[in-house]
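Hi Y.,

Following your request, here is the sequence exactly as I used it, all 227 residues.
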Amino acid sequence: MSDSKSLLLGWIIALIILTVVSTIIVIFIVRHMKKDKQFSPWSHWFTGFTAFAVVFGLCFLYLVAYGENPGRIVSWWWQKEDKPAIDMVVVSAVKDLDSDGNWIDLSKYSEQYLEMNPNLVQESKGRKLYDNILKWNPSYVINSLARQVLQPSNRPQVLFLAVKLGIKGSEEKLVDVLKEHGDKAMAEDYLNCGSKKLHDGAQDWAQSHGYIIGSGNGSHRVGWGSF
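Below is the corresponding structure, written out as tokens. Let me know if you'd prefer a different format.
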């Protein structure tokens, strides 16, 4: 199941729970008010709205506490899969990565210098492209990456970008690419990127190709979900 479908399913379940809990609260309060003879025609509406608002607020706080952006999730529902638009952003980001997975516009600076000047990173072309891609519905981004990976000339950079983005649900397709077009360096990148699914996929690929996995300085050009 894609990331966006999982989020949609999660919201549907949350709304069902929200409705049930709100209804229970309304029934309880109305019965209590009837017993105390404090019931009025507007009590149903007021009580229902209050209960709904409280439970919805708790759901909102839950999403924020776990690092989700409710506004971004809602915006994904209204997005259309504009393939030319998303492909243009993805291709631009791919072209801004070199053969080692570094952002070209930042590669002239040392890591120490970039740490001392974080504004250079935030204002860089690569960072803006990266953040722009993450605004799109995850399933649309995965589809675009799948289209771009068919081009052999840019395949390593596409995979670098996919790992850097770290989109949930993209791991299966990345493992499939390794199985069909993989090499030793790609497998090492998967092993060391920080994703368990990619690590396991690389292990399977290595075993099927007669490689023995050991400790050492393997390829570690990109990190999962790391700019």
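The chain has twelve helices and no strands.

Thanks again,
Q.
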